[in-house]
Amino acid sequence: MLILVFAVIAWLATRRWQLVLFTVRAFLLVDSMGLWTAAMQSLTVVLISGTAAVAIGVPIGVWAATSDRAAAAVRPVLDFMQTLPVFVYLIPSVFFFGIGVVPGAVSTTVFALPPRSG
């Protein structure tokens, strides 16, 4: 059923049957390799973390854009977050939450918060 949903999304997004065919074949390949559960867990973590990062980051960004004091407080934190390597965010998450999906979601959210340049 989920493959059908993604195929419909691919059709509505592009109106190209080639992308629909690719989407269906790609998901069938994932399923045939026995990785469906892992792929859906990864997709869930990314969607939840991305939504959380937007829900946290947009209000802070608007607040920083409208207040010079807020911008002065937020800028050093964001600059520090941008300079850290990706897996450094995972260390405190594993320390506080153990190994699993939760530290991955927390680390992904924290990694997605600061704006990236490049």
Radius of gyration: 19 Å
Query: Stretches where pLDDT falls below 50 for ≥5 residues?
Result: none
Describe the main β-sheet briefly.
none
Q: What gap, in angstroms, lies between the N and C termini?
A: 38 Å
In short:
This protein is an all-alpha fold. The protein has 6 helices and no strands.
Structural commentary:
This protein is mainly α and 118 residues long. It is 81% helix and 0% strand. It has 6 helices and no strands. It has helices spanning 2-14, 17-32, 36-66, 68-83, 90-97, 101-112. α3 (36-66) packs antiparallel against α4 (68-83). The chain is flat. The model has no long low-confidence stretch (mean pLDDT 86).
List descriptors.
6 helices, mainly alpha, 118 residues
Please give the structural blueprint.
Blueprint: H1 2-14, H2 17-32, H3 36-66, H4 68-83, H5 90-97, H6 101-112
Helix pairs in contact: 1-2, 3-4, 3-6, 5-6
